[in-house]
Each structure stands twice: as structure tokens, then as C-alpha cells.
Amino acid sequence: MLSFRKHVIIVIGSFLIAMGTDFFLVPHKVLDGGVIGIALIANYVLGLHIGFVIILCSIPMFAAAWILNREIFYNSLSGMLISSFVIDLLSSFRADFLDLFAPGALPSALLGGSLIGTGLGIMLRNNASTGGTDLLAHFLSRYVRLNVGFVILLMDLIIIGFGGVLLSGSTFAYSLCTIIAGGVATGLITLNRTSWHHQ
To answer: How far apart are CA 24 and CA 197, in angstroms?
Structure first.
């Protein structure tokens, strides 16, 4: 079982991830990497709830984690479920937020990426996460002789590239900024902290 402190950290991280996603990325149809990026594509193209798609996409990865590494399974499950719930919860406040603060596409991509990266970084620093494609990368790295971080980056580029084809070239460009901002934020927060992955 996770400690109360870890649950509090997961909730704080989830709110930062949800704010970055709902208030900054969605209004400009910008993507993030990982499972959030897949869920955003499904939201923009099919109108599906982001949190619901995250849970759906995570099922095979969590099934693999249950079989291969129970510790990773338990450390990631709460983060995935809570962040998915909070993303869908905050989506109903998007219009209210945009009435108060509505930056352009590039500032939104950078701010959104930074918030998501900060939320993930806080979780990772406390040995929790949202699971996502980093779970997949962690398992793939056992069989493919590539660094986990490189595998994650490769998957992120494939996801935003696919989204760019479906949506627009500017979507790809802004999404690239989001991934870079998120990576920097996560990296700064987890500095001097060894962890088995990053989102």
C-alpha cells in the first residue's frame, strides 16, 4: 500500500498535469508525448474524454507490469487513475480559466509542458508515476539495447508526428516545444535523483 504522503504527492502532481493539459494544451490542440498525447489525439479527432482514453491505453502496460514488476505496478497505478480522473474533472473549468488567462499557442505549449513536466517530476522524485509509455519503454529496454530515455523520446516523436499528420504542421511544432519544456522541467526536479523512468 502507498503511504498517505505519497498519495498527497500524487494528487498534487495530478493537478499540475491536469492544469497543463486542460488549460494550456487543449485550447490550442497541442499534444504532449506518451499516453497523454495519444489521449489528446483521441480527444481532438473523436471527442473522447482524455482521462478515459489514458486508462484504456494503460491497461496492457499495467497488465505487463503486474506480471513483470509488481513494485512498478503499485507505484504507478494510483498516479495513472488519479491523474486521469483529475484531467477529466478540470476539463469542465476550462472555459472559466480561459476567461481569466488565455495565452497564445506557443506560450501555452511551453507553460503546459512545464506544468506537466513538473507534476511528473514531483511524482518521480517520490517514486511514483502515472505509468504511461514510460512503463512500456522500461520493459522494451530489457529486450532492445537502447537507453530508456531514448526509447521514450522516440515514442513521443512518433505520437506527435502522427498527431501532426492528423491535425496540422503547427500542431507538431508546438507539441515539440511542449515535450522539450516538459523534459526540462522533469529533469530539473529529478536532478540528482535516480529513477527508473520519466514520462
So the answer is: 25
pLDDT tens across 122-140, in order? 988 888 888 887 777 777 7
* Whether 28 contacts 64, CB under 8 Å: no
Taken in order 25, 30, 36, 40, is the CA torsion positive or negative?
Answer: positive
Q: Measured between alpha carbons, how far is 11 from 79 in angstroms, rounded to an integer?
A: 8
Which among 27, 145, 16, 148 is positioned nearest to 87, based on CA atoms? 16
User: With contact defined as beta carbons under 8 Å apart, do 9 and 83 qualify?
Assistant: no
Rounded Cα–Cα distance for residues 1 and 189 (Å): 25
Please, which residues have CB within 8 angstroms of residue 49's CB and are 6 or more apart in sequence? Answer: 43, 88, 91
From 32, 9, 33, 17, select the one nearest 149 (Cα to Cα): 33
| Three cell numbers written together for 56 | 484504456
